[in-house]
Amino acid sequence: MSSTLTPEDLSRVIEMAWEDRTPFEAIEACFGLPEKEVIKLMRRELKAGSFRLWRKRVSGRNTKHARLRPEGVLRAHCPTQYKHR
After folding, report:
1. How close are the terminal C-alpha atoms of the chain, in Å?
2. By C-alpha distance, which of 24, 26, 33, 28 is closest to 4?
3. Dihedral through CA 1, CA 57, CA 68, CA 24, nearest 10?
4. Among 42, 43, 36, which residue's Cα sits nearest to residue 16?
5. Which whole-number Å values give the CA distances from 61 to 22, 54, 75, in the listed order?
6. Which one in 6, 12, 28, 56 has a CA-CA gap of 20 to 30 Å to 21?
7. Distances (CA, A) of 12 to 6, 9, 24, 26, 70
8. pTM tops 0.90, yes or no
9. What confidence tier does 27 reach under pLDDT thresholds 50, 70, 90?
10. C-alpha of 51 from chain center
């Protein structure tokens, strides 16, 4: 599936994967990539050290998995994340 992503889509998937408040389910809903595919994509696209930092950061993080998030949190981003100038 990731082979059909445009460079812009690929960039956005990587950005969403790095965001603390964006669950893997949101990436799957937008781009059709389940968590395992996102991990493969990140391993392929990031430098080895960056990938290790990312994996350490997202492993076990509540906000990266919708089922672990507190009830009532429906958004995929922080309210101040997309400020308009």
Report:
1. 35
2. 33
3. -10
4. 42
5. 11, 11, 16
6. 6
7. 10, 5, 13, 12, 25
8. no
9. very high
10. 13
